[in-house]
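Standup notes, structure subgroup. Blocker cleared on the guanosine-5'-monophosphate input:
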Amino acid sequence: MTDESISNKTNCIFCKIVRGEVPAEKVYEDKDTLAFLDIRPNNVGHTLVVPKEHYENTYSTPDNVLCAVIKTAKKVAVAVKKGTGADGINITNNNDSPAGQLIFHTHFHIVPRFTDDGFKHWPGKEVREDTLKEAAEKIRKSL
Ligand code: 5GP
Ligand code: ZN
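Run returned:
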C-alpha cells in the first residue's frame, strides 16, 4: 500500500464511519459492506452503500467487492422503498469530480423517489446517427 492510499484511508470520512469514529445512521452491515443514511438527503431515506475497504471509485474497486456492494444496494433499495413508502428508487454512483463525486470512497446512492417530488431527469440530447456510431466505435476500441 502506498503512503498516499494509507493517508486517504486514514482521512476518508466513509472509512471513519466504517471504523465507528464518526457517527452515522447505519441501516445494514455485513462482512464487506455498510449502508447508512446520507447526511444531506435528496429525499428522506436516501441511503449510501459502501465497501468497508477503501477504494476511490468504481473503476478501482475489485469485481468481487463491487459484487458485494451491488448485492447490498439491491437489498437496501427494496428496504428503502418499503420503509419510506417510496414510489420508485434511483440507484446512482458518481465517479470523478466532473461527474459530481465529492467523497472519494466508492459508494452507491439509494434515493427514494415520490411521484411529485419535483426532481427532473437529465434531458436527452438529439444527436446524429453517425455521432452515435463514432462514439460506439471509440468505446468498443477502449474495452
Ligand atoms: P458523492 O457526491 O460523492 O456521490 O456523494 C457523497 C454523499 O455523501 C453526499 O450525498 C453527501 O451528502 C454525503 N456525505 C458527505 N459527508 C457525509 C457524512 O459525514 N456523513 C454522511 N452520512 N453522509 C455524508
Ligand atoms: Zn474510505
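Discussed briefly. The pocket of guanosine-5'-monophosphate (ligand 1) is lined by residues 13, 24, 36-40, 48, 94, 100-103 (CB under 6 Å).
Next: hand off to the docking folks.
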